[in-house]
Design goal:
Blueprint (H helix, E strand, L loop, with lengths): L1 E3 L2 E3 L3 E4 L5 E10 L4 E7 L2 H54 L3 H4 L27 E3 L5 E4 L21 H5 L1 H73 L3 H14 L10 E6 L4 E7 L9 E7 L4 E6 L2 H26 L7 E12 L4 E13 H4 L9 H7 L3 E2 L22 E2 L19 H17 L4 E5 L9 E5 L6 E8 L7 H14 L3 E6 L5 H7 L4 E4 L1 H10 L8 H11 L1
Length: 581
Amino acid sequence: MGQTGLVRFSDVSWVHTSTGKVTGCRMEVWHTGLNEHRLLKAPDPAVLQNKMNAQLASWAEKWERLSAKQLASSTKEKGKEQADSATNEAQNALRDAEGLLLATLDIDDAVDWSTLEDHSPFRGFDGSSFPSVTFADTGWPMGIKEAIAPKAPDPKSAKYQPALGLLDKLLSGRRAAKVAASERLYAADHDAWVEQRRLADGANAASNKQLDAAKAAFLNAENTFKAAQEEGNAKVQALAARYRAGESDAVLANVELILNASKYPDWIRKDYTTQYNAQTKLLIVDFQLPTHSDIPRLTKVAYVASRDELKESFLSDSDFNRLFDSVIYQLTLRTIHELFEGDTANVVDSVVFNGWVTAVNRSTGRDETACIVSLQATKAEFLAFDLRRVDPKACFKQLRGVAASKLSGLTPVAPIIQMERDDPRFVASHEVAGRLEEGTNLAAIDWEDFEHLVRELFEQEFASGGGEVKVTRASADGGVDAVIFDPDPIRGGKIVVQAKRYTNTVGVSAVRDLYGTMMNEGAMKGLLVTTSDYGPDAYTFATDKPITLLNGGNLLHLLAKHGHKARIDLAEAKRLREQRT
């Protein structure tokens, strides 16, 4: 019996007549892939070999045809699966686009301020400074790594009993010498044990002191953590109370929380700028709308077996233009709905929604930003609509919205109300960067000059995009040293800046304060600039938040980028400050 790949064959055997005469030979072959079997006979082995070779060649051709067919079938199946998956994804994207407004109607858009509070247990204790202490999973110092001394030597142990023979019993001097030697051995071992016990007791005493110190350090760190936690929670509660009182910055913080919590398909970017007038209870929202290239157009993907390729089908131009218009109208109504529903304190009487699109101007070839929809709605009027049953475009028109007849043409319209950028906190700026000498120590310059220097740098940084930077009054800045208005529709909006001319490491509290200020100001981003550096907790807190931390090195690099040279020497700045005091 033998086997080669998919072929299995028996041994050759002779065929005999009833009288025992040899009439030929035979063998069996099997093809396991084709699941076929043959019995081959021949008058002699040479002919039998030829028959077997012919059979194997026939099977090989058949197997090749079958394998190719199976491969084609497998490829076709995979191609069809891929096409079906892509089609399902495309259909889901189109359904999402058609249902943008309905998707939010079953969601409570009110902000749960308590979820912004931090009630996590304290787990941030670092016990590496207490190597002799053991800690519970919570970080609490629970005991010491005890030093254990050996047991005291037993004088009755055989080790300390002299081995006395007959002569030792007869000769008292000989016996006394052996007894004295055993006693000396015991005494030496006992002294060594006493020393080991003394060392262990001393080590345990030191460890217990370390344990007490670790407990004190833990409690101190826990109290500091809880105090900061309570302070942060108090700020959240105070912000919620100020929102309910209708204070502008707190109202904008509520607006930001509402809009940030709204879940959109991935192809919609949530870029917006807000402004609130407490006297008129008017909220203005400038919203960056999706462009033609953002909105899904793919309808179906089919697999073409003859070419082994996927073929995509798309919405017709008319259907796509209808969908584009629908998406924009839905976004407009959806945003206003969420803002009114989330305004549980009723401090917003009306909302102005200005929808902006950035696209290529075909006559100039440049990106341009234009407002294509503008709608002002009062709360009482808007809440009277049943948004589940309205046609978004008809509803927009009923609310006297302003837009071209076809939004897909991106025809600009004048916003009903535009944002104002006047702020009584802003003061006139003065030049600092131009007066910097190469050896100027930024950590030692006047703090007000430092704030204006930061303003100048960001003014130069944002100038190419038409950005505007304002410095606030030192007496009432509300935690803001400068405000940047960046018109860029993607990265732009209101950005608050805090400048820290520090000689010590900036801790996490400063970053928390900046984040709170961003919420209060309704800012899209926060920048913290210092002459020193930030602690690890500060960087950790800033992770996944719209906060940029610029240390002394980053500041010098930014200065050099715009043609200014200076230096930072924290030790020198500390000495100068001590001399002045």
